[in-house]
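Bench notes, afternoon.
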Amino acid sequence: MTTPNIAPQGAVREKILGAIGLALKARKCVTGTEMCVERIRTGRGTLLIVASDVSPNTYKRLTDTAYAHKIPFITADVSKRSLADIAGKKSDTAAVLFIDEGFANIIRKLDVEIHTTNTEVLK
């Protein structure tokens, strides 16, 4: 398996975490592998954010589900622990799924690679 392309550190990372924090407060995202996969399968999701330190199996499960249901995703330079901290969870959080287009657009405006299909990458 190839190493995923990771969004750059610094200001972009902080903007990603800020957007996640706002979306959590507005209840416009879900966290965790199981919840993200479930929501993607029901067609409710606009952008998936995967932590940089997830296991290869978890990465494959999340991204394959996103590909199958045409949900764009990024692999952010954010650890599972950072996602858990911002979400107020005790256990590590592998992914966040925005369910609102407005919050997804915040991330789309950043200079990050957004995967939309197996071959297409938007910048």
